[in-house]
Amino acid sequence: MVFDAIAELLAEHNDCDASEITRDTTFAEMGVDSLDTVELVMKLEDKLDCEIELTAKVSTVGELVDFVEPLVQK
């Protein structure tokens, strides 16, 4: 669920297919900078109805999924 939401948002951002995005995809590969990351997190909060305070540096989709999943399950 979290992975799908992130992949969908990244696909929209990069005008690509979500199936091209894996847990190992880096944000650098996707052309996502720190400002884009903040925007992505805000959209994720709306989509997943949770509050995300990104306190760790994440560089891959999988790292973001692992960070966000416990917040969604609360």
Automatic annotation (TrEMBL):
Pathway annotation from the record: Lipid metabolism; fatty acid biosynthesis
SUPFAM superfamilies, per the entry: ACP-like (SSF47336)
GO molecular function: acyl binding; acyl carrier activity; phosphopantetheine binding
Positions of post-translational O-(pantetheine 4'-phosphoryl)serine modification: 34
Alphabetized UniProt keyword annotations: Cytoplasm, Fatty acid biosynthesis, Fatty acid metabolism, Lipid biosynthesis, Lipid metabolism, Phosphopantetheine, Phosphoprotein
Keyword Cytoplasm: yes
InterPro entries reported in the protein's UniProt record: ACP, ACP-like_sf, PKS_PP-bd, PP-bd_ACP, Ppantetheine_attach_site
Subcellular localization(s) per the UniProt record: Cytoplasm
GO (cellular component) term, any one: membrane
GO BP terms in the entry: lipid A biosynthetic process
Family the entry assigns: Belongs to the acyl carrier protein (ACP) family.
Name under which the protein is recorded: Acyl carrier protein
Organism: Lawsonibacter faecis
